[in-house]
Design brief:
This protein is an all-alpha fold. Helix content is 75%, strand content 3%. This is Olfactory receptor.
């Protein structure tokens, strides 16, 4: 696949060219197939989660409400980058307009900020359910849940809007080839001919504050949850509580571990870690959690697993009748 030529412009370029994953061009076909398969699973699984929760009146609880919103955010996050990635890997179509590049950047970073807030809200839900079960309905009223979601989305919008605005208003007078497979902030910042330190520093500080505060509150919630669980006299109740929390912890590990590794490798160890490893880690960070989240919740949450099976059986029977 031929690489786009490097262009040099005085004004901001009308088009960027995404390089893909430098050094892994020989694996592009396999990557296109793998990413297409994961994206299909993410779309199908998260759509099933949303459909099941919205259709079943027995699942109208706070935990499932947050899970439904999480599934929607996962679809947005994966859809922001994967179709373009697959296009690069399969056909070599690497061009993306200036506005589309910054729109992609905005949706990716905003979606990740919303997702970390939702994981905190889900941890709070489990804390109330296990530590204060008698007050669960009184505390987690619909008005509070809606307020939490609005707050989480507002925080993402208010924190990520300045990031995209600052970078998009810097002069781009160098190469218009982005050494990445999507418009990742640090990769685009390398192309400006002014000092990108303020916008890069804002990105690092903002991400660290949001993720750091969320993980601290999540850790505190689960510390209190574990203390309450192990004080239960019934072993069956302990297993049930730990099983419910286990799926949440698994989803959080999938999201936070590669995400933080990607951020700090790009900022601190970009000269040590090979570029293709950095780009591949950032790509997997955006596609693996949306792919596995519905699988984890579908397998570990009995109510969702049963409703999914019933929905698929009904759809299969209707297909046979028609």
């Amino acid at each position: 696949m031929s690489r786009p030529s490097y262009n040099y412009t005085v004004e901001s370029p009308a088009t960027f060219f995404l390089m893909g994953i430098p050094g892994l061009q020989s694996s592009y076909l396999g990557l296109a197939v793998s990413f297409s398969a994961m994206y299909s699973i993410a779309l199908l699984g998260n759509s099933l989660i949303i459909t099941v929760i919205c259709m079943d009146s027995t699942l109208q609880e706070p935990m499932y409400f947050f899970l439904c919103v999480l599934a929607a955010v996962d679809i947005v996050m994966a859809s922001s980058v994967v179709p373009k990635m697959v296009s690069i890997f399969s056909s070599g179509d690497s061009s993306i307009s200036f506005n589309a590049c910054f729109a992609q950047m905005y949706f990716v970073h905003a979606a990740t900020a919303v997702e970390t807030g939702l994981l905190l809200a889900m941890a709070f839900d489990r804390y109330v359910a296990i530590c204060k079960p008698l007050h669960y309905r009184r505390i987690l009223r619909p008005k509070l849940m809606l307020g939490l979601c609005v707050t989480i989305i507002s925080r993402a919008v208010l924190s990520m809007t300045p990031l995209s605005w600052m970078l998009s208003h810097l002069p781009f007078c160098g190469s218009n080839v982005v050494p990445h497979s999507y418009c990742e902030h640090m990769a685009v910042a390398k192309l400006v001919c002014a000092d990108p330190t303020p916008t890069s520093l804002y990105s690092l500080i903002c991400s660290s504050i949001i993720v750091g505060s969320d993980t601290a509150f999540i850790a505190a919630s689960y510390t209190l949850i574990l203390r309450a669980v192990f004080s239960l006299s019934s072993k069956n109740a302990q297993r049930k509580a730990l099983s419910t929390c286990g799926s949440h912890v698994g989803v959080m590990c999938l999201f936070y571990l590669p995400g933080m590794a990607s951020i700090y490798i790009t900022w601190l160890w970009q000269d040590v870690v090979p570029l293709h490893t950095q780009v591949l880690l950032a790509d997997l960070y955006l596609i693996v959690p949306p792919t596995l989240n519905p699988v984890i919740y579908g397998i570990r949450t009995k109510q969702i697993r049963e409703r999914m099976r019933m929905l698929m059986m009904c759809s299969f029977r209707k297909g046979l009748l028609t």
